[in-house]
Amino acid sequence: MTALDRLAEKLEQVGDVRRDEPMSRHTTFGVGGPADLYVTVRGIDALARAARLATEADAGPFVLGSGSNIVVADGGIRGVVIDNRAREESLDGFRVRIGSGASFAGFARRMCRTGVAGLAWAVGIPGTLGGAVVYNAGAYGGCLADVLQRVRLLDPAGNDEWLDAGALDLTYRGSAFRRGGLADRTVLEAELALAPGDADALLGEANGYDQRRLTAQPRGRNAGSVFTNPPESPAWKLIDSVGLRGEQRGDAAISDLHTNFFVNLGQARASDVLWLVEEAERRVFETHGVRLTREVGFVGAW
Ligand SMILES: Cc1cc2nc3c(=O)[nH]c(=O)nc-3n(C[C@H](O)[C@H](O)[C@H](O)COP(=O)(O)OP(=O)(O)OC[C@H]3O[C@@H](n4cnc5c(N)ncnc54)[C@H](O)[C@@H]3O)c2cc1C
């Protein structure tokens, strides 16, 4: 029995385990090779237990939300990927506690429908609450930092604690999870402070955002904006200006509709996506002297 076999046996006590699971099935971009062990957990306790087991075995974990902001390498991910479906929810007035595996957009839309204000801007953002914390997800002038009160985190030693949002260093599409300070923490759950609102008005606002997305963003498989917008100019303008609109490499392409969206036309390989990303970075730097910053995470065995 290998170490991986023993770990798989332990993880089976916590969730559903698959071997060599293609990550292309679990990312919105639709690229990525196999995860050695892929465990689906359906609660906060199970998430914490799976993370502890993987850490003890020195096998990750990589915590996956909805895979909407990552490009996984063709070589896949070594060790354990935790497919997080911890979706518990409790309400205390307008203070809400939610599991990190909950759908952020689904929750936001439900809040609008029930006349709870604070998240109308989020109705079109794919992904889980955990992913939204890591990226301080935002759109149309709002971001998670506006409503996030505190998060419960698990550290690599297996201990969990609540941290105030102020300690997460949340900035435009960034946080201490991305910049290193909290990179090895698992977000277990989060607490948001919302407010009373008018359901009709909130749904009207949400519908307006839906329409804006439908006209501005390409359909098909993608991971949203590939780069954050530098102070000098929106990333799409810089990429467009260096002649990359519609550029293709294999089945990966820079969208014709929005040049900060890269799309999978069918059977794209992660290496083709990376080639396009590096080409955009190189040309924009050579032409404008601007270093683009990746919003999308490149993860796994490159
Ligand atoms: C069509 C489209 C439109 C988009 N529009 C927007 C937008 O308007 N605004 C915006 O901000 N984003 C947007 N995004 C990007 C994406 O939806 C967000 O970044 C989202 O918050 C990612 O969540 P996720 O669950 O999919 O994270 P994943 O892609 O699964 O993971 C991203 C990173 O977060 C880590 N992570 C996830 N969950 C946890 C956890 N519980 N604990 C620790 N680490 C964790 C992962 O390990 C990984 O490093 C868009 C994406 C798409 C495809």
Please tell me about this protein's structure:
The chain has about 300 residues and is of the alpha+beta class. The protein has three domains: about 80 residues, 2-Layer Sandwich (Uridine Diphospho-n-acetylenolpyruvylglucosamine Reductase, domain 2), CATH 3.30.43; about 110 residues, 2-Layer Sandwich (Uridine Diphospho-n-acetylenolpyruvylglucosamine Reductase, domain 3); about 80 residues, UDP-N-acetylenolpyruvoylglucosamine reductase, C-terminal domain (Uridine Diphospho-n-acetylenolpyruvylglucosamine Reductase, domain 1), CATH 3.90.78. It has eight helices and 19 strands. The protein has a five-stranded antiparallel β-sheet with strand order 6-7-13-11-12. Helix 3 packs antiparallel against helix 6. It is globular and about 50 Å long. The protein starts with a helix and ends with a strand. It binds flavin-adenine dinucleotide (FAD).
